[in-house]
Design a protein that fits this description.
With 358 residues, the chain is α/β, with parallel strands linked by helices. It has 2 domains: 219 residues, Spore Coat Polysaccharide Biosynthesis Protein SpsA, Chain A; 123 residues, no CATH class. The chain has 14 helices and 10 strands. It is globular, with a radius of gyration of 21 Å.
């Protein structure tokens, strides 16, 4: 297929230390049944052979363009560079170590073309690999096909996507380019959740959205040094910001009461349990007294009292955690955090299976 001045879809892929998986990820885009696209590979000053692999792909397929950044800027800024360079009517993103079903863009773009929606969202297939690199198990996450053709339907759907952890990623979304550029929506510098905050900014402006049940994006979760397996000191403060920002969005819409408040309360309980677990990591440099003080501060915050303290906890571990916290039992909450930490350290695949809780 020859190069087109204005393809329907621009796919942006930040590339850094990705040489082991990059060829498969590129192929996953270029073999899509939907061909009216361009692939923008943003080489984030990668020190390995990734840049050369990008150029090789561009030489093989005229739909591929390569941007070589002069210094490493991080995935968010690399995506921003891709947004500036994109020529498509719509934008999509992909990570350089994942894959997609070959027809997912065709399904998504048909939903956009048919009704001129601002955004399309689809499901994901999480693939967990053991330390040897073998696929251990998969987890499919999706919602039913839904056409959100009004602002009210969009707002009802966003919190459901967030509950299913489908809202906070960028690679299972397609966005109208004009909307992203008009409102200056860009990825911020954040070690985690930069996808979520990008989508939160977009949610303030979209007026229509197509949701596809197809779990067409394959998110590879490997037992290596990826960002999802690193210790992140800022984790809980960013998780708290995630909950509070969504709460603020729905409060501004006058729609916080009911399902949004319940969903956010349950999510915050999960983040708290994960925070308790991470506080047990030696890299947190917290002793027992500091962990206990952390709990005491937490349960006194307005965010805890207005969401997690009053929600109907859906899962048994969360109900137990809520009981400990609401009764002021720091010891019980700390014991739960310690138990989850030990599972994570000794049986990481079992811990991965329980991710809906932690």
């Amino acid at each position: 297929m020859g190069e087109q001045a204005e393809p329907f879809l621009s796919v942006i892929m930040p590339v850094y230390r990705a040489q082991e998986y990059l060829a498969e990820s590129i192929e996953s885009v270029l073999t899509q049944t939907f061909e009216d696209l361009e692939l923008i590979l943003v080489d984030d000053c990668s020190p390995d052979e990734s840049g050369a692999l990008c150029e090789k792909a561009a030489a093989r397929d005229s739909r591929v363009r390569v941007l070589h950044l002069k210094e490493n800027q991080g995935a968010g800024r690399a995506r921003n560079a891709g947004i500036e360079a994109a020529r498509g009517q719509y934008l999509a993103f992909m990570d350089a170590d994942d894959t997609m079903d070959s027809d997912i863009y065709e399904k998504a773009c048909l939903s956009l073309k048919g009704a001129a929606r601002d955004m399309a969202v689809w499901g994901i297939t999480e693939e967990y690999f053991d330390r040897s690199g073998a696929l251990a198990y998969t987890n499919v996450i999706s919602l039913p096909d839904t056409d959100c053709d009004t602002v009210e339907k969009v707002r009802d759907m966003i919190i459901l996507l967030e509950e299913k952890i489908l809202f906070g990623y960028q690679w299972n979304h397609i966005y109208r380019t004009e909307l992203i550029r008009k409102h200056g929506i860009r990825f911020e510098e954040s070690i985690i959740y930069e996808d979520y905050f990008f989508n939160l900014d977009a949610a303030k402006h979209i007026r229509s959205m197509a949701v596809l049940s197809a779990p067409g994006y394959h998110y590879k979760k490997r037992m290596n040094d990826s960002i999802t397996t690193k210790f992140i000191p800022e984790y809980f403060s960013l998780a708290t910001r995630r909950i509070s920002s969504m709460e603020e969005l729905y409060r501004g819409w006058g729609a916080l009461d009911g399902a949004p408040r319940e969903i956010l309360g349950n999510m915050y309980l999960r983040y708290i349990l994960s925070g308790l677990m991470r506080n047990c990591d030696p890299r947190a440099e917290m002793d027992g007294r500091e962990r206990r003080a952390w709990v005491k501060r937490l349960i006194a915050t307005p965010l805890y009292m207005e969401t997690a303290a009053v929600c109907q906890a859906k899962q048994r571990p969360l109900r137990l955690l809520q009981k400990f916290l609401n009764s002021g039992s720091a010891s019980g909450a700390l014991a739960m955090g310690r138990a989850v930490y030990l599972v994570k350290e000794k049986a990481p695949l079992i811990f991965g299976r329980s991710r809906k809780i932690t």
